[in-house]
Design brief:
2 copies of one chain form a homodimer. With 320 residues, the first copy, chain A, is mainly α. In chain A, 59% of the residues lie in helices and 10% in strands. In chain A, a hairpin with a 5-residue loop joins strand 4 and strand 5. In chain A, helix 3 packs across helix 4. Strand 6 of chain A pairs antiparallel with strand 6 of chain B, so a sheet runs across the interface. The structure holds a DNA duplex (25 and 25 nucleotides).
DNA sequence: GTACGTGCAAAGACTTTGCAATGGC
DNA sequence: GCCATTGCAAAGTCTTTGCACGTAC
């Protein structure tokens, strides 16, 4: 599985070479391999040192030139972490992100925050500015350095994996929240048929949540250290909360009475919103595993929507 | 008035020199003057070119060294706008801010967004990271470049002035909102004494708003181009809206009936919140004119609070 | 008079370019 | 065989350092 991605990256590079009339060489291959085999934010010198270990005859100029190519074809991204060196990070199927940099141990935390993006979008739009790329870097001291502890040095899972994990976590949170909503709606509902509807949908949500949790479990098993890796995608649980429909509370809370049809309508509302929400999220990201998870969730919600809709139509055929 | 700030900056530099056993020289003075006399984000070369016009014998090394000193004593701030040059911007009594950079015309828009700050703070705190400084830069195309217009070249007012303007604008918006609230509360209120209270407070707010507006007017008159300068401080009017108390709406909206005492209590609530709000804002910024405006507003709101409080006590002496 | 300041030149750090030999295709 | 590639050296860019002379205090 991880090998497949490596292959895809190499193929992408070769394709780039072909399309530009460039040639495949031992050195380029070696540099690509070295770059792909190392996570983190490496300077030219870093990569040169690693390459030299494998072939002492490679020149640093070739490393410069090859990294420029890797940058051009979307495998590497040139970044500047404020130390005057050009550094390169993995770019292929990695979401664009921001950096938190410890000025003491030089550890870099990558993160993404749709809320930050939203606020920023609001700002630039006031100037009618068209943003093309951005640089958000926060410098300071990490917890370990502040407390004079050694930073953990184990191999870090790569950002795409962490992003996928966080996407799954978000999907699970959504599913769990839906589940809880249907359960509480069922328990409040005095109408037996409506209650039954909520209960059955809660079960469906539960089963989907379990499925996602299992998937997350598998992911953790395959990827060492993934579970402990710091959060990458910051999502706001309030955002999820807002998708939950309000139960009609004109009556006292305990006197809720929704028949099957009304219950199904409410469920349709939630499923539709959730689908839209995930679709929206999926669209924010370039081709990544996380994006695919969001897409899948949106699809699944739409399917659930459709199945609930069929049920609603069976009760009372739709008008129009 | 602007001369006074210049003097303060020079004095700050001389003080720095004295405290570090360094010497005051013709060259340092010339470089400081040149830096202070030019807004914008100048590279060493830029400043060197300007300095050379006044004294051909000055060396670029001296410019490098002097700018390092200016950076060290808080008059200049070293920034990196992604073009590989170290640039310097005014720092003394200028709020820290972010940059939007047009990659075509190289124009730089400075901005500040407390909301962005808030989101960012939320992110770093999840990593228990202690942020010390940050770099937020958005690259893209400005409106003028997208539409192939020439960028306006008039002299830009400096950021501190624009910040002060925006602080005033915010204070005015707050005052206007309060005014509107008291007016509408008065018109809804069926209790004559309560209505009179709201009306009189509305007048006080109005007078304060007018005072601030006059101040803004003066500011515009003294500073060419200030009125048209793009927004620097992005504040969210919802944030202001949230300070407005909800009128008790247990009854129908038109049946509001608040006696003088209740009306005064509601006014106290608003004034207190507003004072807290401005105090909070003032605390976010270093020594700048904008900060002082926020502080003054907080004070004024506290005074208003006290005066309303006296009125409330006159009606019914406070318990405890 | 002492010690920092200055400006020149030189060095340093990072990156790019020129060029002759090499090696894909 | 053509032409991109490579690795060396050299150059380029931005910045800092070394040093002898100058000058502020």
């Amino acid at each position: 599985m991880p090998g497949r991605k490596l292959e895809a990256e190499k193929e992408l590079f070769y394709e780039y070479l072909r399309q530009n009339g460039l040639k495949k060489t031992r050195q380029k291959d070696l540099i690509l391999d070295t770059f792909l085999g190392n996570e983190g934010h490496m300077s030219v010198e870093d990569i040169y040192a690693l390459v030299k270990k494998r072939d002492r005859k490679v020149g640093i100029v070739t490393v410069f030139r090859t990294l420029k190519s890797l940058n051009a074809c979307g495998i590497a991204r040139e970044i500047n972490l404020g130390d005057g060196l050009t550094r390169f990070e993995h770019c292929y199927q990695h979401p664009v992100h921001h950096h938190i940099i410890c000025t003491k141990c030089l550890r870099v935390i990558e993160f993404l925050s749709p809320e930050l993006e939203r606020v920023q979008q609001g700002v630039v739009s006031r100037y009618r500015f068209q943003p093309l790329h951005q640089r958000i870097q926060i410098y300071g001291l990490c917890e370990d350095c502040r407390e004079n502890r050694a930073a953990p040095t184990g191999p870090q899972p790569d950002t795409e994996k962490i992003f996928a994990r966080d996407a799954l976590r978000m999907a699970i949170a959504m599913q769990r929240q839906g589940c809880e909503f249907y359960r509480s709606a069922a328990s409040c509902n005095q109408d037996p048929a409506g209650r039954e509807v909520f209960e059955s949908i809660a079960l469906e949500e539960e089963s989907h949540a379990l499925q996602l949790e299992m998937e997350l479990e598998m992911m953790h098993r395959y990827e060492k250290g993934l579970e402990e890796a710091p959060v990458f995608l910051h999502f706001d649980s309030c955002e999820l909360q807002q998708l939950i429909p309000n139960l009609p509370s004109d009556l006292g809370d305990s006197e809720l009475r929704l028949d099957a049809r009304r219950a199904l309508e409410i469920a349709l509302q939630l499923e539709k919103r959730a689908a839209g929400f995930f679709k929206d999220y999926a669209e924010r990201f370039g081709e990544t595993e996380g994006k695919r998870i969001f897409e899948r969730c949106a699809e699944q919600q739409m399917k659930h929507f459709a199945s609930i809709n069929r049920r609603a139509e069976a009760i009372a055929p739709a008008s129009a």
